[in-house]
Amino acid sequence: MTNFLPVAAAASSNGGNQSSMIFMILFYVAIFAALYFFLIRPNSKKKKEEAQLRNSLEIGDEITTIGGIMGRVVAIKDDEDAIIIETGSDRVKMKFKKWCISSVDTVKEQPQQSAQPEKKGFFGFGKKKDSDETKATKE
User: Fold this and answer.
1) Contact 106, 60 (CB under 8 A)
2) If you write DSSP's letter for every residue of 12-74 in order, what string do you get?
């Protein structure tokens, strides 16, 4: 009978190890998911927006480089992946790689959509709007 107790203790401790192993795996999965959503995903989104900004560059756009040089784009050389900008009143022309563009300072008009979606309230219902008739009756 003395041999039976250590076997039972080993069997019960093995079940505890499995649950702690599952908890540890779930903990590591949660850490990885948090790192993905807080570090990796925003960084890749930002890189995608920067690439779109550089590809939509047009002649005449005002830009700022990562070095702080401000100027207007006068030529785009796609074969070299470069741009030529002119700065200041003396019209000095400089050649830069596209990756050095920090921001495009030219404000471009976004096409207005004729059918804008109705704004929804907190629970998905449409917000109440006072029509002209109800405003007239309130006064």
Assistant:
1) yes
2) HHHHHHHHHHHHHHHHHHHHHHHHIIIIIHHHHHHHHHHHHHHHT--TT-EEEETTS-EEEEE
The reported pTM is: 0.52
- Tens place of pLDDT for every residue, the chain, 139 residues? 455 545 444 445 565 688 889 999 999 999 999 999 888 888 899 999 988 888 888 999 999 999 999 999 999 998 888 999 999 888 899 999 999 998 888 877 665 555 555 566 556 555 555 555 555 555 5
The answer to whether position 34 is within a domain reads yes
Please give the residue range of the domain that contains residue 76. 62-104
Same domain, 4 and 49: yes
Same domain membership, residue 41 and residue 90: no
Total of domains in the chain: 2
